[in-house]
Write a structure and sequence with these properties.
269 residues, 13 helices, Alkaline Phosphatase, subunit A, 7-stranded mixed sheet, alpha/beta, single chain, globular, 16% strand
């Protein structure tokens, strides 16, 4: 039995959405922001990737998953399954996919990973992953590889539930700050990748009459000079965009907490 809605979750690390839109360099994101379900979110402290992405992807807080930094020491991910794993427990027949360039998210040879490897499901064709190392090779090129792999996977097999992650904006924010210049260059590159993902989803909807939901979020913001981890409103700012293709946009609660996203996803597919 196919899922009633196929869902693609796009994670864009360190994205200051309103600043990106105001720059005029994020036309796809601006269109989605204005023509979708939208909600602002506030992420928990510390505002760093490890705990924030773990909360967003597992649906539980740090008190359960115990990821409190990017080192993942003494984590309890075994007690905090990711949303792809949870979905297969609810619907064993579905196919899942994950692609990322930050190794702790999906690389089975790295710390974590947050997204379970599920080797048996990979062997049976029910799960696939695309792993790259942006920390070593740089996210400007790795994000493109990740996007192309995801476009190909959606085009060829249309997985029921997918997660794709981009980190170029966060990388640029750390190196150059978030007020001008290369931060927005990175945002424009990612915006084009999001456009490509949206287009391949549209193509599947047209060809197979499928219903899709594209969900976009971030794990934290940045200080003007670059960097994050503190408790300023700018660093704690996140958001949710949920855009239906071949179906209506969802009517999710106006004030969703990061740990509540998984529940909304599982209720949608």
């Amino acid at each position: 039995m196919a899922s009633k809605t196929k869902l693609l979750l796009i994670g864009i690390d360190g994205l200051m959405l309103q600043r990106a839109i105001d720059s005029g360099r994020a036309k796809t994101l601006a269109h989605l922001r204005g023509n979708s379900f939208f909600s602002e979110m506030i992420v928990d402290l510390p505002t760093v990737s490890g705990p924030s992405w773990t909360t967003l992807l597992t649906g539980v807080t740090q008190s359960t998953h115990c990821v409190i930094d990017n080192d993942f020491k003494e984590h309890k991910l075994a007690s905090a399954p990711d949303f792809l794993t949870l979905a297969t427990r609810k619907f064993p027949e579905i196919k899942t996919f994950a692609a990322a360039g930050w190794p702790p998210l999906i690389d089975p040879n790295d710390i974590g990973p947050v997204i379970a490897t599920r080797a048996e499901d990979q062997q049976s064709g029910k799960h696939s992953i695309f792993v790259r190392d942006g920390e070593t090779n740089g996210y400007e090129s790795v994000d493109v590889e990740v996007a192309h792999a995801t476009v190909r996977e959606i085009h060829e097999s249309g997985p029921d539930l997918s997660f794709v992650y981009f980190c170029g904006a966060d990388e640029a924010g750390h190196q150059y700050g978030t007020v001008e210049g290369k931060y927005f260059d990175a945002i424009e590159r990612i915006d084009l990748l999001v456009e490509a993902l949206q287009q391949v989803v549209r193509n599947r909807c047209d060809k197979f009459q499928e219903k899709w939901l594209i969900v976009i979020t971030t794990d934290h913001g940045h200080r003007d000079e670059g960097g994050h981890g503190g408790d300023s409103s700018q660093e704690r700012a996140s958001f949710l965009i949920a855009h239906g293709i071949g179906r209506e946009h969802p009517s999710w609660p106006a004030n969703i907490k990061p740990e509540e996203l998984v529940g909304q996803i599982l209720a949608t597919i």
